[in-house]
Each structure stands twice: as structure tokens, then as C-alpha cells.
TrEMBL record:
Originating organism: Oceanithermus profundus
Name of the protein in its database record: Peptide deformylase
GO terms, molecular function: peptide deformylase activity
EC number(s) per entry: 3.5.1.88
EC top class named in words: hydrolase
Length: 41
């Protein structure tokens, strides 16, 4: 079962932070599953 992720709302300071470059794509499929589960929750 996928994990429901927290939703960040507009104005959350974390949304202004620069992300690190992605080096390892092995967890990308799991992240996508979690995002879909969160969307339908």
C-alpha cells in the first residue's frame, strides 16, 4: 500500500527552497505511487 504524503500549501517556505539534483532514480516509481495515493485520499 502506498503512503499518503503531506500536502504543502502555497506560502509554505519549503516551496521556495532549491532542490538538490536527482542522482538516484531508483525510488521514483515508489514516489509516483505515493503521489497518486495522496491525490485520491
Amino acid at each position: 500500500m502506498a503512503e499518503v504524503l503531506p500536502i504543502r500549501l502555497y506560502g509554505d517556505p519549503v516551496l521556495r527552497r532549491k532542490a538538490r539534483p536527482v542522482q538516484d532514480f531508483s525510488d521514483l516509481a515508489e514516489l509516483a505511487e505515493n503521489m497518486v495515493e495522496t491525490m485520491f485520499e
